[in-house]
Design brief:
The protein has helices at 6-33, 92-97, 160-175, 181-192, 217-229, 231-242, 249-268, 271-278, 283-286, and strands spanning 48-55, 61-71, 76-89, 112-124, 131-141, 144-154, 194-195, 200-201, 205-212. With 297 residues, the chain is of the alpha+beta class. Strands 1-2-3-4-5-6-9 form a seven-stranded antiparallel sheet. Strands 7-8 form a two-stranded antiparallel sheet. Helix 1 packs parallel to helix 5 and helix 3 (160-175) packs antiparallel against helix 6. It is globular, with a radius of gyration of 19 Å. The mean pLDDT is 91.
């Protein structure tokens, strides 16, 4: 299926926006419900929403999206939930940033592209609440299309039961599409979120896929949707449990050091960061994943 796929692209873009709206509402609900425990006397946080816009080299419209960022909340120290739908022509450097799809037949003669997705990163106030990342996306060229995405948990204070819940919820959603998906996507996440220069993973893993194209668009889209649907039931119960725990200066220090690890990964290895910057997307939106404070020792 290498036609314009206009109907499919519209459905995917609309789904990412719907998921964004669900997550924003749920996160603001967490802020409203935090009426006991550390920082509960502070004002409930709210997302600041701004439009992002991208232009081609000739000044023509090249898409954009919404950047939604909450800073200094009761529960969330910084969280971004971004959606975008962008299009245009891929330059050579942008093509090289697509690690899984370099050298697509015909790309040199017709380098048009379209991409849509949602990207989320949450850095928490309470060091006992894990940081988290999630994204799902669809990419199209006249020569190929594919889906990608996943979510992974990044606690600085690890709790085995939290990790087990996060993974079990993802497995439950993926198993609806076949029992082979969860083991494969878990292993992929373990490999993708490994930091070679530190010799360790950046968190406790999750699921990840890229370059998903079985030539059955409906099936691949349904799998991508359930990766997105798994996120809130996997993550929210962990925050509800941990947000009321007291923390020490030692806990906060450990959180800042762990955030440094997260920042290193996103700036050095993350494919989405590289592709977003290479294709001229709003730098603030691309780099919203960075923590508000971090520490290196």
């Amino acid at each position: 299926m290498t036609s314009e796929m206009n109907a499919e692209k519209q459905r995917a873009s609309a789904w990412f926006e719907e998921l964004r709206n669900q997550i924003v509402a749920a996160f603001e609900g967490l802020e409203d419900g935090h009426d006991t425990g550390p920082l509960s006397n502070n004002a409930a946080g709210r997302f600041e929403v701004s439009k992002t816009k991208r232009t081609s080299d000739d000044g023509s419209d090249a898409g954009g999206g919404l950047m939604s960022v909450m800073r200094g909340g009761r529960v969330f120290e910084k969280v971004g939930v971004n959606i975008s739908t962008v299009y245009g022509v891929l330059g050579a450097r942008a093509q090289n940033a697509m690690a899984a799809r370099k050298g697509i037949d015909g790309m040199a003669n017709d380098p048009r592209f379209w991409a849509s997705g949602i990207s989320l990163v949450a850095h928490m106030q309470n060091p006992h609440c894990p940081a988290v990342h999630m994204n799902t996306r669809m990419f199209w060229t006249p020569h190929a299309w594919w889906f990608g995405g996943g979510s992974d948990l990044n606690p600085c204070r690890e709790y085995d039961e939290d990790t087990a819940h996060f993974h079990a919820t993802q497995k439950e959603h993926l198993d609806q599409h076949g029992s082979e998906h969860y083991p494969k996507l878990k292993e992929w996440a373990d490999e993708y979120f490994f930091i070679p220069h530190r010799g360790r993973a950046r968190g406790v893993g999750g699921i990840f896929m890229d370059d998903r194209c079985t030539n059955d668009w409906e099936a691949d889209f349904a799998l991508t949707q359930d990766i997105g649907r798994a996120f809130l039931p996997a993550f929210l119960p962990l925050v509800e449990k941990r947000r009321v725990q007291a923390w020490s200066d030692e806990d906060k220090d450990a959180q800042l050091v762990h955030r440094g690890l997260y920042a290193e990964y996103n700036l050095v290895y993350d494919r989405g960061t590289k592709f977003g910057l290479e294709t001229g997307h709003d730098a603030n939106a691309v780099l919203m994943s960075l923590p508000p404070l971090a520490k290196w020792v």
